[in-house]
Each structure stands twice: as C-alpha cells, then as structure tokens.
C-alpha cells in the first residue's frame, strides 16, 4: 500500500512539473535574425529562464499581432510599429502592452540596383534608377514584417509617395527586385546583418535624417564594405522586448526576475565572445514605451 501511494505521489509530482503553468512563448523573428540572436544571448547568461520558449515569426508585424491576440506572452518589436498601432490604428489593446527591456537601434536599409547611365543620339546623358530617397516617388518598394509599417511612416513623414509591395520575407523581396517587379527593397534590421554582408550587385540608398522624423527615428550610418566604400547615412528606430501587463503574482515575479537578470548581466552580454555586436549599443536606460513594473 505504501509503495502504491509513493508511486502515485511521484506520478502526481511529475505531472505537475510537466504542466508548469508559468511558461511564456516569446515571438522573435527569423532564426538567423537579430531578435532571435538577442533572445538566445540572454538565455545564455540568464540560464534560469528556461520557461521562455522561442517562437519564430515574420518579424515585428506578426509579433505585435501574436502578443495582442494572446498567442505569445512576450515579443520583440520595433517601437515605430507600436506607435503606429497606437496613433494611426488607434487599437485600444496597445494600452496593455509594456516594455520589459529596451534594446538596440534597428537601421533602415534601402536596397536598389545601381543606376543606369545612358546617352541619347544628341549626346545627352541620362541617369535612371534610385539614387536618393526622393527617387522612390511613384516607384514600387518591397517590404516585409514591421518594415511595411516603417515604409508607410517614412512615406508619410517625408512626403514621398510610393507603392508598398508587402512580401513574405527577405528572399521574396529580393526575388521581386531582381525580376524588376519592384524598384527597391526596404528592410528594418539591426546591422551588421549577416545576409546583407553576402549581397552583391546592389547599392544602399541614403536616407539622411530630417526634422519630420524627429521623435521616432534617429540618425545612423550603414557600414557594409561589400555595398559601399564609405558609410551610407540612414535613420534607425529602437527595438524593444514587450509583454502584456500581467498582474498575476507568479507571472509578474518571473518576468521581473528575467528583466533584472538581463539588466544585471549587461556587461557579460557586451563582452562575452559570441554575443551579438548590437549589445554594444544597449543601455537598458531609454524606454521608448511605458515600462513593465
């Protein structure tokens, strides 16, 4: 009888451990992207956070939808996507989203084919193609994930109308560019991005900072020797790890413990070999969104 009771007790304990209710899914992005790398890096220094499970997605746009639809508990997003949902879409659910960790700046990358120079029979030289952001006027721009929102915001803020062509992912965007279906590709990614370092035969289109972008974007520079011999001016938007405003004590305790560990391990995240270089930019001091407390 004692043996049977012991077995039943062990079985019950095992089932309780297997069904741990304190488990959070975290929406990141592409497995080769910066969001995924940053999430894995935190897991390396905060080993007690095994209850956080990564969920790969198409990026910020998917992530914010998954979070607001209760399909994940945390999500990596661009702060301009949050602001657009709040100010443009006026989605009331955004009020329940809080910043757990402010992260790094994500640079706007605009890719185009090199301009083509031609001469008329009269000797007049004509240059066609996308050389500046203003050249995107009435052109077609491919984007995916949160970059679709960024493309809309930049078009409105800078008064440069263009057609945004939403695509599934990065390969689809460049397939469209190579096929002549779009004139440029706009991608919001934290540099250095491994896949950008592997590109050739394209150019980065400069996007200098201007007053209409103030309050959402900051000045930045793209440094990819394979695409430009010198730095290319652009703008950046801050990324942030957000969560819903959980009130349940056990959930709140674990989220705040995760936040505290990451902040306390910042030096390790910045200095340990193998960590993503974007950690050099993180301070955890600038909150682009109301903080989870």
UniProtKB/TrEMBL annotation:
User: What name goes with this protein?
Assistant: TRAP transporter substrate-binding protein
> Pfam families from the xrefs?
NMT1_3
Instruction: Supply the InterPro entries for this chain.
Output: TRAP_TAXI
Where is the signal peptide, in residue numbers? 1-18
User: Which organism is this entry from?
Assistant: Deinococcus humi
Question: What keyword terms does UniProt attach to this protein?
Answer: Signal
Q: Which domain of life is it from?
A: Bacteria
TM region positions: none
């Amino acid at each position: 009888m004692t043996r049977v009771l012991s077995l039943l007790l062990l079985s019950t304990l095992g089932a309780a451990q297997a069904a741990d209710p304190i488990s959070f899914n975290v929406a990141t992005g592409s497995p080769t992207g910066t969001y995924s790398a940053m999430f894995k890096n935190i897991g390396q220094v905060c080993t007690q956070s095994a209850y956080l499970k990564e969920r790969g997605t198409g990026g910020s746009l998917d992530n914010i939808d998954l979070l607001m639809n209760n399909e994940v508990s945390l999500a990596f997003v661009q702060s301009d996507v949050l602001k657009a949902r709040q100010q443009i879409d006026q989605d009331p659910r955004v009020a329940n989203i809080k910043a757990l960790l402010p992260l790094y700046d994500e640079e706007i990358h605009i890719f185009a084919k090199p301009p083509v120079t031609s001469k008329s029979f009269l000797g007049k030289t004509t240059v066609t193609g996308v050389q500046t952001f203003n050249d995107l006027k009435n052109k077609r721009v491919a984007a995916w994930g949160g970059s679709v929102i960024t493309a809309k915001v930049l078009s409105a803020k800078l008064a440069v109308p263009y057609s945004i062509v939403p695509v599934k992912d990065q390969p689809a965007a460049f397939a469209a560019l190579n096929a002549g279906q779009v004139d440029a590709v706009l991608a919001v990614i934290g540099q250095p991005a491994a896949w950008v370092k592997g590109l050739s035969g394209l150019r980065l289109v400069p996007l200098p900072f201007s007053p209409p972008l103030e309050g959402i974007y900051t000045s930045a520079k793209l440094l990819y020797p394979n695409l430009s011999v010198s730095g290319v001016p652009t703008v950046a938007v801050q990324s942030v790890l957000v969560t819903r405003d959980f009130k349940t004590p056990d959930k709140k305790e674990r989220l705040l413990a995760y936040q505290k560990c990451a902040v306390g391990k910042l030096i390790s995240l910045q200095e340990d070999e193998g960590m993503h270089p974007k950690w050099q930019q993180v301070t955890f001091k600038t909150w682009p969104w109301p903080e989870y407390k």
